[in-house]
Amino acid sequence: SEAQVVELEDGTLMLNMRNNRRTGRMVYTTSDMGITWQKHESSGKLVEPVCMASLIKSDANDNITGQDILLFSNPATDKSRFDMTIKASLDGGKTWNGKNSILLDEENGWGYSCMSMIDERTVGIIYESSAGQMLFQAVRIEDIVKKNPVKDKL
Q1: Cα distances (angstroms) measured from residue 76 to each of 9, 20, 66
Q2: How far is it, in rounded angstroms, from Cα 79 to Cα 154?
Q3: CA dist 113 to 20, 64, 73, 149, Å?
Q4: Among positive and negative, which fits the CA dihedral 107, 110, 112, 117?
Q5: How much is the pTM?
Q6: Phi-psi region of 51 (alpha: psi -120 to 50; beta: other; left: phi over 0)
Q7: Cβ-count burial of 109 within 10 angstroms (0-12 exposed, 13-18 middle, 19+ buried)?
Q8: How far apart are CA 63 and CA 152, in angstroms?
Q9: Active site residues
Q10: Please, are residues 116 and 8 in contact by the beta-carbon 8 Å criterion?
Q11: How far apart are the first and last CA of the chain?
């Protein structure tokens, strides 16, 4: 439930959704507009405490990195709704390098989030935080995507 969809560089649609069985986010792709779906290699590897998340794509021409990036936000733990984080994938969601992330709020909150690009340098996120019911933050892309990331697994 609570799914987000993005179009990848090759035209494939990626569906990232809450998994009520507590086994991490489910991720599926389709190349035929939803007639058939294939389980994505990252399925089950993005941890969360069963919560709504946000996933957006920023095309290479629309951000300062000069490459297509996926941005994903959620409480990045399977324990409870804390550690609100934004992560970036530079390879179409196959991996989510731990170096390409930023911790926004480490305290308990409700955790639902929604993101949108503000401009080529900034992503906006509104989320249910520990500081109040709703919090808006503008986050610089350069604070999420590091210049020389070390390859990490999900």
Answers
A1: 26, 16, 27
A2: 17
A3: 17, 23, 7, 25
A4: negative
A5: 0.91
A6: beta
A7: buried
A8: 23
A9: 2
A10: no
A11: 22
Place of tokens 């290479």: 60
Q: What string of pLDDT tens digits covers the 154 residues of the chain?
A: 899 999 999 999 999 999 888 778 999 999 999 999 999 999 988 999 999 999 999 999 999 999 999 999 999 998 899 999 999 999 999 999 889 999 999 999 888 999 999 999 999 999 999 987 899 999 999 999 987 544 444 4
State the alpha helices, DSSP H only, in 15-101.
none
SS3 90: coil
Q: How far is the CA of 44 from the CAs of 20, 71, 79, 93, 151, in angstroms?
A: 12, 17, 15, 12, 19
- Return the closest-CA partner of residue 45 out of 29, 28, 23, 30: 23
Distances (CA, A) of 121 to 52, 60, 62, 142, 150: 25, 12, 9, 7, 22
What percent of the residues of the chain are helix, what percent strand, and what percent coil, each to the nearest 5?
5, 40, 60
